[in-house]
């Protein structure tokens, strides 16, 4: 018996064709930079293995992780408040949380600099105890924290909102305090969103450039180093450094995406 040929849905087909332009643009960019490096592999290896490049990649990754750790501490409580409470001015607070997304990165950098410089509201008292942000590692983390915070808070808030309120209420009727209900019910059921928000925030943080150079040109993160190479050594060397970072990001984020599928499986059954 001859099987009938399935005709693709015209709407799905149209959407796929239109949406593929975004994928093609990214693939085209990756192919362009990849072909250039693969055809000149010895040069790429020599640049990518420079200690300055390796140090910049490690610094970027670790600083991004530190920013995510701070977001876990400060962002989760804020996300829970926004998800579970309704108060006057909530829309204003949500808008303030989203401001770093809308602002040009240079403006975000100026805001970070004003806050964390030696004479800033936050930077001045912390400099008294030896924590310096200008031209230092804490400044990089502060800039990454600022620009990536909306991605983390919004993702985690969505996760909290998807946990049925009656589950939390049931825990409280059984004698659990609000914090115990949050820790034992809401938090475990939101792990996937927390993990996803962390990946988004980490990716956003390590990709930042303008906000970081405003507060800490040195030590150089990878985006600053690429810019430095581009302005001093030209396109060939800066492209090799960029390709090295692309490879690292592809490997790291592919692993994280695989791990994410195994996190919060119970969440799907809510």
From TrEMBL:
<feature type="transmembrane region" description="Helical">
    <location>
        <begin position="95"/>
        <end position="116"/>
    </location>
</feature>
<keyword id="KW-1133">Transmembrane helix</keyword>
<keyword id="KW-0472">Membrane</keyword>
<keyword id="KW-0813">Transport</keyword>
<feature type="domain" description="ABC transmembrane type-1">
    <location>
        <begin position="57"/>
        <end position="256"/>
    </location>
</feature>
<feature type="transmembrane region" description="Helical">
    <location>
        <begin position="240"/>
        <end position="260"/>
    </location>
</feature>
<keyword id="KW-1003">Cell membrane</keyword>
<keyword id="KW-0500">Molybdenum</keyword>
<feature type="transmembrane region" description="Helical">
    <location>
        <begin position="12"/>
        <end position="36"/>
    </location>
</feature>
<dbReference type="GO" id="GO:0005886">
    <property type="term" value="C:plasma membrane"/>
</dbReference>
<feature type="transmembrane region" description="Helical">
    <location>
        <begin position="136"/>
        <end position="153"/>
    </location>
</feature>
<feature type="transmembrane region" description="Helical">
    <location>
        <begin position="56"/>
        <end position="83"/>
    </location>
</feature>
<keyword id="KW-0812">Transmembrane</keyword>
<dbReference type="Pfam" id="PF00528">
    <property type="entry name" value="BPD_transp_1"/>
</dbReference>
<protein>
    <submittedName>
        <fullName>ABC transporter permease</fullName>
    </submittedName>
</protein>
<feature type="transmembrane region" description="Helical">
    <location>
        <begin position="209"/>
        <end position="228"/>
    </location>
</feature>
<dbReference type="InterPro" id="IPR000515">
    <property type="entry name" value="MetI-like"/>
</dbReference>
<comment type="similarity">
    <text>Belongs to the binding-protein-dependent transport system permease family.</text>
</comment>
<dbReference type="GO" id="GO:0055085">
    <property type="term" value="P:transmembrane transport"/>
</dbReference>
<dbReference type="InterPro" id="IPR035906">
    <property type="entry name" value="MetI-like_sf"/>
</dbReference>
């Amino acid at each position: 018996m001859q099987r009938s040929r399935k005709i693709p849905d015209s709407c799905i087909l149209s959407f796929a064709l239109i949406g593929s332009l975004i994928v093609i643009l990214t693939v085209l960019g990756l192919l362009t930079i990849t072909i250039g490096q693969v055809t000149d592999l010895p040069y790429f290896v020599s640049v990518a293995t420079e200690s300055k490049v390796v140090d910049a990649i490690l610094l970027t990754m670790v600083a991004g992780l530190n920013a995510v750790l701070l977001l876990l501490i400060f962002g989760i409580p804020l996300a829970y408040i926004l998800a579970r409470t309704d108060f006057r001015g909530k829309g204003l607070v949500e808008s303030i949380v989203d401001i770093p997304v809308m602002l040009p990165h240079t403006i975000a950098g100026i805001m970070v600099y004003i806050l964390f410089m030696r004479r800033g509201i936050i930077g001045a008292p912390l400099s008294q105890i030896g924590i310096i942000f200008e031209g230092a590692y804490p400044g990089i983390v502060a800039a990454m924290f600022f620009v990536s915070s909306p991605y983390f808070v919004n993702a985690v808030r969505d996760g909290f909102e998807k946990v049925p309120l009656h589950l939390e209420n049931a825990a409280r009727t059984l004698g659990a305090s609000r914090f115990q209900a949050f820790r034992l019910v809401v938090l475990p059921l939101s792990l996937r969103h927390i993990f996803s928000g962390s990946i988004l925030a980490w990716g956003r943080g390590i990709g930042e450039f303008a906000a970081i150079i405003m507060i800490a040109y040195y030590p150089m993160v990878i985006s600053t180093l690429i810019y430095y190479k581009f302005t001093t050594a030209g396109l060939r060397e800066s492209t090799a450094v960029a390709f090295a970072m692309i490879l690292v990001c592809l490997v790291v984020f592919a692993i994280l995406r695989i791990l994410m599928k195994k996190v919060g499986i119970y969440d799907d059954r809510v």
